[in-house]
Structures are given as structure tokens and as C-alpha cells.
Amino acid sequence: MAALNLSCYYHLFHSLSHSPPPRNVASVSILHGRNNISLSPMPLTFHRQKLHNNLLVLATTMSTSVRDDLPPALDSTSEPPPVFDGTTRLYVSYTCPYAQRVWITRNCKGLQEKIKLVPIDLHNRPDWYKEKVYPPNKVPALEHKNEVKGESLDLIKYINTNFEGPSLYPDDPLKKEFGDELLSYTDTFNKSVTTSFKGDGVDEAAAGFDYIENALSKFDDGPFFLGQLSLVDIAYAPFIERFQPYLLDVKNYDIKVGRPKLAAWIEEMNKNEDFNQTRRDPKELVESYKKRFLSPKQG
Fold it and tell me: Where is the GST N-terminal domain (predicted)?
């Protein structure tokens, strides 16, 4: 049975109601699988229409927060699952940021029981994965309706469109157009930051994070890229999760300094349980990037 604490969503109500912040924010507990809702007193006065709008935002933002019992990664000694037996499977690596995008999307849609997580050991991949599941031999891959699809940005859009759960992309044409632009920029952003990893300075990384700061200033109806949490935030989160501690540790460069929108975005993402379930230990991430980007002399 999973409980969901919604007090962290107070900012959604306050930003739309323009009411002064209460001293005691209500705590809402929803027991998964039951209609059991308890509300503590909340000294807030809402206009009826604003309250209605706020509840709509809340309904599309929250998820069931079902916590996975994460299975061990399958390696060359593991038997294959019964592929194409009607089960929908998401093949991931626990360490891959591209796979993490799709994993977060699955969680935010509340599909933990509909899409089975199948982790693959990328350092000791089973032969059957390439032969029977996904010939490109990469993660992520989604087995659905007797087909296997790949590429992380394609998959987050596919899951959002083809499965139940709250929509993670806006209908507003301006937001949709800007969201498409930001999704297209993700590879450029990642390359600009990792290029700085290999050099002495941080100019290219700084330019990339300045772009992010400006993008986060586009809409003012929430702390995320398109106001409310969307596929755009999910696409960037795994990489910023890795870039932030690495740049601070190796370059002594704090990406939040001088970027209040980015600092607020990181804070809000870190409150999201669906994201947190996919995260790795920052020290582990830093060490992994050191092995990848630093020469033996530098290390």
C-alpha cells in the first residue's frame, strides 16, 4: 500500500490563488487502492474558479507514487524473460541517463504495474538481449504489443501518448512549440557540458546552463520549463543530476550560482518522488564521470 504526501504541491495552489502563505499547509494522504482521504484544516480562502483550476493542475501533476522493488540487473548468465508474451517491458540500465528518462516517465504516469522494469548489465550484456529483444543492443528499449522500440526521446513521447495516466505534455500551442524546441536542444546541451569536462575551463558548460536559465524564465505559472512538470523536465533531469555534482567536485563550479530559476528547478525536481526513485548516489555519479573523462594523471 503506497501513501502519497501532497504537501509539497502547496506552491501550485499559492501561485494561482495569490493568497498569503498559511502557517500550516494541509497534509493530504491518499492510500493507494482506497478512497481514503484525510485533510487537516487549511486556513486558505480560494475563489471558486481558482480552486477548480488548482485541483485540475494537482490532478495532472500527482501520481500514485508506487515504489518499485528494483530487480537485479540481468547479465550474460541470466535467462531471458518470455519475450513477446503480452507483457509490456521497459529494458533499462540503472546507470544510464537515457534509460532513466523513460523510467521517470513510466513512474510519473503511474505505470509501475503496467510496464515491467527489466534492468540490463551494460558491462556484461546477455547475448539474448541483442538476438531476441533489441538488435541495436542498447537501452532503453520498450517491448509493447509484440514490438520493441528504442531511442529515449521517442519513447517518452510514446509512453505519454499511448498509455493511461496524466498527460506530461501541454495542449497549449505556445508551450508545445517551445517544448519541442527544448527537446531538440538536449543533445546540444549535453555535448556543450561534457566538452567542458575535457578542457580546463567551463565556458561551454556555462553557456549551456545560461540557456537553461533563460528557458526556465519563459513561463511564470510554475517552476518547470513549461510551467508544470512535463517531458522536457524529464529529458533534462538525468543529465543535470550528473553534471551538477561533477562540475562542483572537479571544476569547483556551482551551476546554481547566478541562476535562481535553475536553482528553484533543481529544488522542485528533488521533491519529486517519481524522479527520486530513479536517482543514483551523487558520489557514484562523480566517480563514474571521473573514470570516463579524466586522464590517469588527472585522476
Answer: 86-167
